[in-house]
């Protein structure tokens, strides 16, 4: 099995990021669930992640990655030059997460917010956990 990405389902930037990942993950390594879904909430509980966390989360091989570590973990598996961003892992999370937190804090103002989670297309639906 691949990895699971938990994302903010009402965030336009997060939804666009999911679509971006799907296009660059032709093998279907990543599966998705919104943080707001029952599945997302169950996974947070199972892996001991606070429900208050406001971050992209990757669960891979029984490990949990948050914030910039999650984004860089994703980049490792994408096609094209995107995988080279994973080299940024050499920088301590304290520095990387500063930029991540800036975007996360402003994502609704900059990119907008939906009233509900996105509905995946029939083609994308197999990539989402119920």
UniProtKB/TrEMBL annotation:
InterPro entries: DCC1-like (IPR007263), DCC_oxidoreductase (IPR052927). Pfam families: DCC1-like. This is Thiol-disulfide oxidoreductase DCC family protein. It comes from Neobacillus driksii. The lineage of its organism: Bacteria, Bacillati, Bacillota, Bacilli, Bacillales.
């Amino acid at each position: 099995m691949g990895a699971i990405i938990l994302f903010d389902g009402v965030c336009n930037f997060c939804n666009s990021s999911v679509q971006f990942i799907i296009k660059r993950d032709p093998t279907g390594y990543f599966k998705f669930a919104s943080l707001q879904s029952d599945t997302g909430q169950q996974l947070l509980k199972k892996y001991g992640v606070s429900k208050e966390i406001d971050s992209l989360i990757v669960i891979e091989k029984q490990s949990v990655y948050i914030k910039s570590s999650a984004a860089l973990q994703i980049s490792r598996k994408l096609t094209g030059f995107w995988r080279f961003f994973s080299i940024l892992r050499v920088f301590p999370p304290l520095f990387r997460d500063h930029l991540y937190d800036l975007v996360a804090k402003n994502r609704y103002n900059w990119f907008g917010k939906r009233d509900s989670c996105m509905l995946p297309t029939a083609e994308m639906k197999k990539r989402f956990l119920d």
